[in-house]
Amino acid sequence: MLMMMRIVENTTERLVLKGTPGGALATLLGAAVVAATGWFAWVCVGEAGGYLQLIPLGFGSLMGVALFSVGLLTLAAGRVRLVLDRRTGDASYDVYSPVIDVGKPCSFRLEEIHSVAIERHEEARPHHDDHGAFPAKVCRARLRLRKPRRAIVLDETENGQERRVRAVAETVAGWLELEVTEQG
After folding, report:
1. Cβ pair 98, 78 in contact under 8 A
2. Could you tell me which of 85, 82, 90 has the C-alpha nearest to residue 153?
3. Overall number of domains in the chain
4. Domain CATH number, residue 95
5. With left for phi above 0 and alpha for psi between -120 and 50, is residue 23 left, alpha or beta?
6. Which residue, 129, 136, 170, 175, is the most exposed by fewest CB within 10 angstroms?
7. Would residue 99 count as lying in a domain?
8. 12: confidence class by pLDDT, cuts 50, 70, 90
9. Do residues 173 and 110 lie in contact, with contact meaning Cβ atoms separated by under 8 Å?
């Protein structure tokens, strides 16, 4: 799941980031499955004249509609928010997603922030031919906490857009007066 938070407030007292957890990929995939099964159904009925092939295509179309709905619901209602407040010394991470598990909300003190890290690694993605899996280069910026011991994803991308990830990491690290650490 790719997640992206944008900086919506950046003052000397507060830094606020908001975003949506994933959803776009599921929406696009669902729409593609519905379109493909619809086209194939049109070809089956038009050329072959057989209606029996429509039964499995109906199941495929229902799966596409389900994926599309999950993605659309996540895009419409899912939200993540990170608030860092210098006046109080507190921070909060709020998460709401009706479908996707994107972590638990938490509150913490600013002094419990360990670092801002940019991590790079490759993840195997399945491929639909005999060549097996292909690697996807993932780059993510995370806010690492000491207590509670966890990491909050600030931004994440696959196969590009690393400048965007770096910009978010550097802005958050600069506000916290920390250095960005590189991993991977």
Report:
1. yes
2. 82
3. 1
4. 2.30.29
5. left
6. 129
7. yes
8. very high
9. no
Looking only at the bridges linking them, the beta strands covering 113-125 and 106-109 are unpaired
Containing structural domain, residue 135 = 3-26+77-182
Q: For residue 65, tell me if it sits in a domain.
A: no
The CA R_g of the chain, rounded to the nearest whole Å, is: 21
* Model pLDDT for residues 106-153, shown as the tens digit of each residue: 999 999 999 999 999 887 766 655 566 667 788 999 999 998 899 998
Residue 132 CA from chain centroid, whole number: 25
DSSP symbol at 99: S
Does residue 33 sit within a domain?
no
Which residues face 119 on adjacent strands?
Answer: 140, 183
* Tally of CB atoms within 10 A around 177: 6
Asked if 137 and 146 count as a contact pair (C-beta separation under 8 A), the reply is no
pTM over 0.85: no
State the burial class of residue 67 (Cβ atoms within 10 Å of its Cβ: 0-12, 13-18, 19+): buried
Q: What is the pLDDT of residues 37-46, one digit of tens each?
A: 888 888 877 7
Q: Where are the alpha helices (DSSP H) in the chain?
A: 24-43, 54-77, 162-176
* Length of the chain measured in residues: 184
Q: Is the residue at 45 inside a domain?
A: no
